[in-house]
Amino acid sequence: MQTAIVTPSYSGDFDRCRLLCESIDRRVVGFSTHYVVVEKKDLSRFAPLAGPRRQIVDERSVLPSWLVAVPDPLSLGRRRIWLSVKGPPLRGWHVQQMRKIAMAAMLSDDGVLFCDSDTVFVRETDLAVLWSNGRFTFYRQENGIAPDKAEHLGWSARAAGLLGIGSAPVSRVDYVAQAVGWRTDTARDMLARIETVASRSWAAALASDRRFSEYLIYGRFVDEVENRPDRHAPTETSICNSCWSEDALARRGLASFFAQATARQPAVGIQSFINADLGLIREAAGLA
After folding, report:
1. β-sheet with 135-139: strand ranges across
2. What is the pLDDT of residue 241?
3. Predicted confidence (pLDDT) per residue in 89-117, tens digit
4. How far apart are CA 76 and CA 258, in angstroms?
């Protein structure tokens, strides 16, 4: 079974993405191609990262033509928003999700591992371990969404609406991590389901409302719609050990956090909004 790696990124995360690429080149085997998907204006910035097993992809080749990136006036042009006639303006993190979905649907590989730019591999790994007897690793955390996480519960409810799940509008199962694997055949089936329910393209359906999470949509599709246990190997251990807050990082310390990586979690993710020193991350990852 063949697996690709996909990373949506942007100029502000270039240095983190470069570190991810270095760690993949040094430590990861068992994949076909690493695709880095960026906005057209960022292509030249990311071009040096291309190589025999890495392609820099223009988002225009995977997103619909009606979704247009323009400077965000609220940030004095430092950031971008994506406008369309299909719904409200979208932020970069919304479009990054759509890039992932589009790539998963169009790839000929059997599976795809999404790795965010702020992920780094700290141990050698063969992505063949994501497959077991034709089943692909499926990350899910039972009761992983706390009752007070209104935003996440809203994403879960939106997923139910997009997929036509009327029996349980909200699920507390969490599917979100910094490195997540999808089957591409399942992704295509998921999009076909959305288009049947919405009577329009999957992209137009998502863009009509900014409340969505690609991982919750996929997860709920697998658990509640697809009903194909022969395709998926559920696990509560993400391939990536993630840090989501400055407090957590301060308590553990960067070196200690990285040292926790095991063979089952060869990647570490330090969320970019924490603003941890990239030089220290490079050193802790053994890539200095």
Report:
1. 131-132, 135-139, 232-235
2. 84
3. 999 999 999 999 999 999 999 999 999 99
4. 37
Q: Compute the mean pLDDT over every residue in the chain, rounded to the nearest whole number.
A: 91
Number of domains in the chain: 1
Asked if pLDDT for residue 251 goes beyond 90, the answer is: no
Q: What is the pLDDT of residues 174-189, one digit of tens each?
A: 999 989 999 999 999 9
**Distance (Å, rounded) from C-alpha 162 to C-alpha 281?**
38
Tell me the residue range of the domain where 170 lies.
3-284
**CATH label of the domain that carries residue 100:** 3.90.550
